[in-house]
């Protein structure tokens, strides 16, 4: 018989699960027919416009730098809105896939030019409606405006009224971003053609062709409104597969003409409908209003930055700024960027990453030496959307970046429960990624298999047997073996994978400081990356809850953060996540405070997270704030398991003592569960779980003697897991919902409602204008 959904035949898992009955003190809680008839469910009660309004970014003056501006976007095109200090207001034009020679490049900006000099103003970024609005100058004599990038169409809308004004497009040279950032001269023979400007049927355009082929078009036009005017602009792009002489203005001009001829209210309605459907897919409220605001701005940023059918979210998304990071970085950045989509139940956004991999399998294969292409694939440190970046397999490489990227693909599968994704898409490329590693292994005098000297991102000293590589290889082998058994593939390589696991050298450990960078290289200088701790987070190759592994994990984390000089934003998000997994609940918020607040450094005080929640290290690096949202998830809901196909939901696993009230609705757990829960006065009131794929439901609820309510009589078993920690199992089937409550407390109907936690008045609308 085929395995039941999410039933794992892996030997290690079978042994683990087989222990559980020995530990369980089984209690069957069977609801009577009358109780079944009175079964109830928890519901969310959220006034979304009001709730998100408390998190809108608000500026009491017009921002003058990119990292303090208002940003709008639809996963492809967008704009950053601010003043450069010399003009009244500008919209930096962005489109994520505008690249030349595999590098993102600048496009230009639209500048609002009032007929008379105007100074001052204010702004607001309305999250619920995904639009920015404000006034240039002072009311009532200023210029009032509002702007949004349409949710579906490649169109940015600006409506304005008041004093006479016009918009002017200022083109920026199409030069390599790193050269511009470093002020490096670009030889004339490497410069692109000069742009050409024109007008077609009332629509203005700028045509920029690239010497290598392809190019882009910016088009714009306007129309009168009953009060004021509406201005529209768009960007069309053609890749270098299109000869430069075939790059035309037709589509861009047509998009603007359609907007001019259409009804403005229809544009607004369809735009808002998309966003109003997006937000309620999940809900989270915590008692730290500043952190809550930060979280919801990241949800907005994700959907403004990428979509399932649009480019993967690189370091900038559709908000270009001068930068040395004009590509996708595979040794941390792209992975952290996508972490929050899974638990936030916004898996469609994660598909832009998995589809990028699916569409470039041939390039990933061609990245490895010719003699290995029959069974291998890899990618180097950075690449464009085509995933072209060769890895030669010699010493000094950074070898595990594709495997780490595929861990994100694995999370996409685990949270979705899509078995076809695993079989047809993920398994074949993961097999090749591990195959690349197998070519690197060599037997040592100790009888173990070893990896060559390599880079542990981004530590300055190389080492053989880096923990980065060993963690990823071990995770990849264990996952392939489990998937092979689950899918009944009888893969002929399974015996080799098993033998490799048995012979693979252990993780290098220093008895005093914990996990090392690699063999012979201890962690001895401050380092922002947690590459040497990958076996802990995010791979959970070692068990943060076990008496054997936990002390070493705690020691390693403490030593990593004991050398703080080079720590950066994601050092604190990663440290916070590891703290959440080992149960150091009261250490997480202080780490996130360091991440969110300013710190003293060379040149004075600087913010890790900027006033608009963007983050920069030389240039924009979007992954760090998004990783912060993922760490908040780890505090309220975890679902990792030592078994690749196991299910172990943990509700409020790392909430600090100071967070007495927390609520969330339809967050997602591994195994494809939607989970809702409420904590009040420091106590869990209920946990509600819906199964989307029929995986075994095992949960640590925090409830005393949990009982179940639902559409039928459920079998509930309260016992302990293999570490002796509380575990409740429920015979929940696909499509069913169960409400778990304490058997010692009767809940009133109002207690079964998920609603916002009361806000801290002094932290409302914390972002926008810089706050002390």
Q: What proportion of the residues is helical, as a percent range?
A: 25-40%
The side-by-side strand order for the widest beta sheet comes to 2-9-10-11-12-17-16-15-14
By secondary-structure content and strand pairing, the structural class works out as alpha+beta
| Low-confidence region ranges | 1-38
Put simply, the count of helices is 18
CATH homologous superfamily placement of the domain at 60-280:
putative glycoside hydrolase family protein from bacillus halodurans
Describe the 3D structure:
There is one protein chain. By secondary structure, this protein is an alpha+beta fold. Among the domains are: 11-47 and 643-754, Golgi alpha-mannosidase II (Immunoglobulin-like); 60-280, Distorted Sandwich (Beta-galactosidase, Chain A, domain 5). It has 18 helices and 39 strands. The strands form eleven sheets. Strands 2-9-10-11-12-17-16-15-14 form a nine-stranded antiparallel β-sheet, covered by helices on one side. Strands 18-31-32-33-38-35 form a six-stranded antiparallel β-sheet, with no helix packed on it. A hairpin with a 2-residue loop joins strand 32 (673-680) and strand 33 (683-691). Helix 12 (419-440) crosses helix 13. The longest helix has 22 residues, at 419-440. It is globular and about 75 Å long.
């Amino acid at each position: 018989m085929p395995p039941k959904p999410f039933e794992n035949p892996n030997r290690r898992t079978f042994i683990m699960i087989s222990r559980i009955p020995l530990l369980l003190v089984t209690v069957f809680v069977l609801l009577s027919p009358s109780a079944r008839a009175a079964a109830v469910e928890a519901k969310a009660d959220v006034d979304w416009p009001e709730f998100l309004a408390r998190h809108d970014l608000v500026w009491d003056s017009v921002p003058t730098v990119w990292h303090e501006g208002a940003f709008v976007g639809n996963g492809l095109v967008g704009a950053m809105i601010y003043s450069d200090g010399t003009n009244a207001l500008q919209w930096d034009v962005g489109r994520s896939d505008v690249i030349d020679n595999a590098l993102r490049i600048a496009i230009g900006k639209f500048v609002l030019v009032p007929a008379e000099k105007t100074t001052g103003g204010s702004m607001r970024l309305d999250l619920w409606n995904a639009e920015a609005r404000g006034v240039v100058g002072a009311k009532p004599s200023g210029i009032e405006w509002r702007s949004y990038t349409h949710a579906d169409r490649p169109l940015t809308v600006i409506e304005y009224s008041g004093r006479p004004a016009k918009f002017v497009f200022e083109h920026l040279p199409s030069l390599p971003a790193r050269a511009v950032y470093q002020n490096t001269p670009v030889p004339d023979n490497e410069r692109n053609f000069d742009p050409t400007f024109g007008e077609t049927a009332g629509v203005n355009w700028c045509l920029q062709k690239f010497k290598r082929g392809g190019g882009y078009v910016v088009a714009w036009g306007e129309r009168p409104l009953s009060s004021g005017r509406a201005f529209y602009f768009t960007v069309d792009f053609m890749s270098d597969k299109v000869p430069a002489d075939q790059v035309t203005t037709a589509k861009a001009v047509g998009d603007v003409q359609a907007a001019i001829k259409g009804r403005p209210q229809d544009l607004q309605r369809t735009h808002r409908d998309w966003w109003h459907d997006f937000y309620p897919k999940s809900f989270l409220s915590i008692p730290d209003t500043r952190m809550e605001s930060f979280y919801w701005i990241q949800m907005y940023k994700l959907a403004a930055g990428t979509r399932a059918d649009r480019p993967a979210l690189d370091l900038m998304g559709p908000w270009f700024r001068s930068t040395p990071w004009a590509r996708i970085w595979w040794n941390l950045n792209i992975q952290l960027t996508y972490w929050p989509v899974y638990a936030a139940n916004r898996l469609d956004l994660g598909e832009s990453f998995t589809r990028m991999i699916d569409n470039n399998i041939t390039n990933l294969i061609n990245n490895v030496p010719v003699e290995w292409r029959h069974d291998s694939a890899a990618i180097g440190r950075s690449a464009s959307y085509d995933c072209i970046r060769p890895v030669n397999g010699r010493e000094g490489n950074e070898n595990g970046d594709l495997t780490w990227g595929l861990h994100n693909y694995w999370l996409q599968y685990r949270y979705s429960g899509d078995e076809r994704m695993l079989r047809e898409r993920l398994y074949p490329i993961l097999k090749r990624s591990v195959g690349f590693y197998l070519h690197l292994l060599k037997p040592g005098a100790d009888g173990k298999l070893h990896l060559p000297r390599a880079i542990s991102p981004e530590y300055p000293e190389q080492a053989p047997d880096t923990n980065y590589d060993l963690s990823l290889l071990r995770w990849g082998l264990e996952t392939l073996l489990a998937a092979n058994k689950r899918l009944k593939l009888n893969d002929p390589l399974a015996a080799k994978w098993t033998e490799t696991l048995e012979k693979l050298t252990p993780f290098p450990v220093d008895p005093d400081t914990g996990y090392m960078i690699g063999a012979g290289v201890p962690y001895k200088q401050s380092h922002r990356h947690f590459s040497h701790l990958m076996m802990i987070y995010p791979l959970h190759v070692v068990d943060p809850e076990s008496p054997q592994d936990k002390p070493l994990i705690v020691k390693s984390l403490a030593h990593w953060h004991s050398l703080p000089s080079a720590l950066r934003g994601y050092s604190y998000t990663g440290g916070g996540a590891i703290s959440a997994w080992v149960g150091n609940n009261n250490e997480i918020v202080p780490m996130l405070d360091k991440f969110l607040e300013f710190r003293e450094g060379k040149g004075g005080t600087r913010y890790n997270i900027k006033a608009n929640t963007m983050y920069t290290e030389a240039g924009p690096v979007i992954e760090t704030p998004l990783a912060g949202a993922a760490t908040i998830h780890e505090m309220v809901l975890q679902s990792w398991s030592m078994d690749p196909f196991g299910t172990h939901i943990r509700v409020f696993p790392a909430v600090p003592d100071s967070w007495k009230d927390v609520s969330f609705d339809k967050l997602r757990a591994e195994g494809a569960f939607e989970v809702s829960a409420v904590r009040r006065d420091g106590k869990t009131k209920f946990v509600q779980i819906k199964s989307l794929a029929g995986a075994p439901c095992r949960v640590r609820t925090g409830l005393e003697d949990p009982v179940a309510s639902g559409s039928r009589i459920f079998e509930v078993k309260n016992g302990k897991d293999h570490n002796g920690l509380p575990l409740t199992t429920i015979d929940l089937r696909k499509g069913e919902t169960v409400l778990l409550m304490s058997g010692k407390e009767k809940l009133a109907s109002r207690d079964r409602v998920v609603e916002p936690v009361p806000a801290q008045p002094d932290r409302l609308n914390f972002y926008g204008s810089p706050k002390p």
